[in-house]
Specification:
One of its GO terms (biological process) is fructose metabolic process. 36% of the residues lie in helices and 21% in strands. It is α/β, with parallel strands linked by helices and 358 residues long. The protein has one domain: UDP-N-acetylmuramoyl-L-alanine:D-glutamate ligase (3-Layer(aba) Sandwich), CATH 3.40.1190.20.
Length: 358
C-alpha cells in the first residue's frame, strides 16, 4: 500500500498535478498559446555505449539517455524557445517517471503522458559502429508506448495545438495504431497542421512490406513531411533518392504544404507546390548522430509554428531550413539526443560563425 501511495505522489510531482491549471506555464503550452507544437508517440530509454565506434556486443558499458523521436522533437522545440507538448505512454516504473520529469524540466507540457501499470517503459540499445552503420536492439514485448488507448488521449491538448507531429512507430501495433489515427482525426478537425517524420526503424516492423505499407497508409494526410534519402530509397522500392522527379511523382501529394528531404551533413532539399530547392548543411565535427534529424525537425516546426507564411515565402523558408540544419549540426557534436538539443542562442551563434567564414 505504501508503495502505491508513493507511486501516486511521484506521479503528481512529475506531472505537476498539484498546480491549479493543468495547462499552466510550468509545463509549457498554456491555453492562450497559438503556436503550440504537440508531439505524439514513443518516449523511451536509449542505452548508448560509453565508447564510440563499437558494435553492441563489443561495448564495454552503456549509459542511459532519454529518447524517442517524438519526445526529442518536443524537447527540441522547447529548447529553441517555442511551446510544445507530448502525448504518449510510459511504464508505471522508475524510468517512466524519469522520462515524464525530463519533459517537465524542459518546459514541455506533459499532461498527455500516461503511465501503464501492466507494461514497462520501452528500452533501446543504440550504437554507431566503426563502419558508420547504426545498430539497434529494442525491448518492447509489449512496452507501455504500444498500449496507448484512445481513452488515454488528452484531447484538450491536441485541440490547442497549431502543429500536431508524429512518426510511424506508433502505427506498428494495436491499440496504439488506432489511437494514433484517432489523434490525427481530432487534430485535423481542430485545424492543426499535421507533421509526419516516418523515422523508419525496420527491426520493429514484422517485415519490410509491412513497414512500407504502414508508413504510406497515412502519407496523404500530412501537411508537412520530413524524410531522409535512405527512406526515399526504401519507400520507392529502390529509386534514386536524388532525383527530383522520383520525389515529386512518388512522394509529393496534393495536400502537402512542404516536403523536406534531409541529406545529413550536406543539408536538405525542399519541395512545395510553388517552389523547390536545396539549402547547404552546416559543417561540424560529429561525435554522435543520434537525434540530429529530430533536432532538424524541431527547428523547422518551431519556425513554422510562429510564422505560417513560410509555406509561401521561399526566402523565409530557406532561412528557416538553414536554422534547422544548424540545429541538426549542433546536436551531432554531443552524445545522446535530448541532452544535445540546442538552444536558440547556440544556433544563432553557430549561424553567425558560418556567416563570418564566408
Amino acid at each position: 500500500m505504501a508503495n502505491n501511495l508513493t507511486s501516486a505522489v511521484d506521479k503528481k510531482l512529475v506531472l505537476g498535478e498539484d498546480s491549479k491549471d493543468p495547462s499552466s506555464d510550468a509545463k509549457g503550452g498554456s491555453k492562450d498559446d497559438k503556436s503550440l507544437v504537440v508531439c505524439f508517440g514513443e518516449m523511451l530509454i536509449d542505452f548508448v555505449p560509453t565508447v564510440g565506434g563499437v558494435s553492441l556486443a563489443e561495448a564495454p558499458a552503456f549509459k542511459k539517455a532519454p529518447g524517442g523521436a517524438p519526445a526529442n522533437v518536443a524537447v527540441g522545440v522547447s529548447r529553441l524557445g517555442g511551446s510544445s507538448g507530448f502525448i504518449g505512454k510510459v511504464g508505471d516504473d522508475e524510468f517512466g517517471y524519469m522520462l515524464a520529469d525530463i519533459l517537465k524540466q524542459n518546459n514541455v507540457n506533459n499532461s498527455g503522458v500516461r503511465f501503464d501499470p501492466s507494461a514497462r517503459t520501452a528500452l533501446a540499445f543504440v550504437t554507431l559502429r566503426a563502419d558508420g552503420e547504426r545498430e539497434f536492439l529494442f525491448f518492447r514485448n509489449p512496452s507501455a508506448d504500444m498500449l496507448l488507448r484512445e481513452s488515454d488521449l488528452d484531447i484538450n491538448l491536441i485541440q490547442q495545438a497549431r502543429i500536431f507531429h508524429y512518426g510511424s512507430i506508433s502505427l506498428i501495433d494495436e491499440p496504439c495504431r488506432s489511437t494514433h489515427l484517432a489523434a490525427m482525426r481530432i487534430a485535423k478537425k481542430s485545424g492543426c497542421i499535421l507533421s509526419y517524420d516516418p523515422n523508419l526503424r525496420l527491426p520493429l516492423w514484422p517485415s519490410e512490406e509491412a513497414a512500407r505499407k504502414g508508413i504510406m497508409s497515412i502519407w496523404d494526410q500530412a501537411d508537412i513531411i520530413k524524410i531522409s534519402e535512405d527512406e526515399i530509397t526504401f519507400l520507392t522500392g529502390g529509386d534514386d533518392p536524388y532525383d527530383d522527379n522520383v520525389v515529386l511523382t512518388k512522394l509529393f501529394h496534393p495536400n502537402l504544404k512542404l516536403l523536406v528531404v534531409t541529406e545529413g551533413s550536406e543539408g536538405c532539399r525542399y519541395y512545395t507546390k510553388k517552389f523547390r530547392g536545396r539549402v547547404a548543411g552546416v559543417k561540424v565535427k560529429p561525435v554522435d548522430t543520434t537525434g540530429a534529424g529530430d533536432a532538424f525537425v524541431s527547428g523547422v516546426l518551431n519556425s513554422i509554428a510562429s510564422d505560417l507564411s513560410l509555406f509561401q515565402n521561399e526566402q523565409g523558408l530557406r532561412e528557416a531550413l538553414l536554422f534547422a540544419n544548424a540545429c541538426g549540426a549542433l546536436t551531432v557534436t554531443e552524445r545522446g539526443a535530448i541532452p544535445a538539443m540546442p538552444t536558440r542562442e547556440a544556433v544563432l551563434r553557430c549561424l553567425a560563425q558560418v556567416a563570418d567564414k564566408k
